[in-house]
Amino acid sequence: MILNIGDLIIGFPFPIFLALFLNELRSTGVRKMTQIVLYLPNFLSWVIIAGISTQLFSGNGLLNGVLGVFGLPTVPFLTNTIWWRIIYWVMGIWQSAGYSLIIYLAALMGTDPSQSEAAYLDGATRLQRIWYVTIPQIMPTISTLLIMQLGKVINIAFDRPYMMSNMLVKDASNVLSVYVYEVGIGKGRFDYATAVGLFQSVIGIAMVLVFDKIAKKMGQGGIM
Known about the structure:
Elements: H1 2-11, H2 13-24, H3 28-39, H4 46-57, H5 62-69, H6 81-109, H7 113-121, H8 126-150, H9 159-164, H10 170-173, H11 176-186, H12 190-217
Helix pairs in contact: 1-6, 2-6, 3-6, 6-8, 7-8, 8-12, 11-12
């Protein structure tokens, strides 16, 4: 639950801010290159990303090697629970931000530029135009993706925590999907694992329906 809440608080707003930043760039080349660099990790499996994480953040990894050059102590990025969660969230943003970025950029392309121009003529600053003009126009897209993200708060994917975990951070990475795998495959209790997995799915669907109804009452379109 902590891992998914962190993904929601840290990972969800990141592509929104990034899309707004890229939308303000005048250089088309820089914008396209940034999109490509951020979208490519979406095609990588968590096996590969976990390997990259190990090479970068392990005790003998690249980052600790750089710290050692400057005489700084080794940081237990992958063996300390707090640091491991931070790395987990950072790698999650790197892997998934590009997908949401494409959606937000597409939504921004559909905004009415005349409203921003009118606000500019009225003396609004760039930040004011983004906050009061641009963001309200893409709010239906934001609310739709937020509802989908909220529905996954309890329904975390199996591969990411399992591949990035190790015995020293087992308590932090032992999420419900990993528990279902260990009970079902590891202990052969397929009936119990199926029941837990079904419960997880039902709760996820219920949360999506609840948040969808809340979004509609707040004036947003929702997803249904």
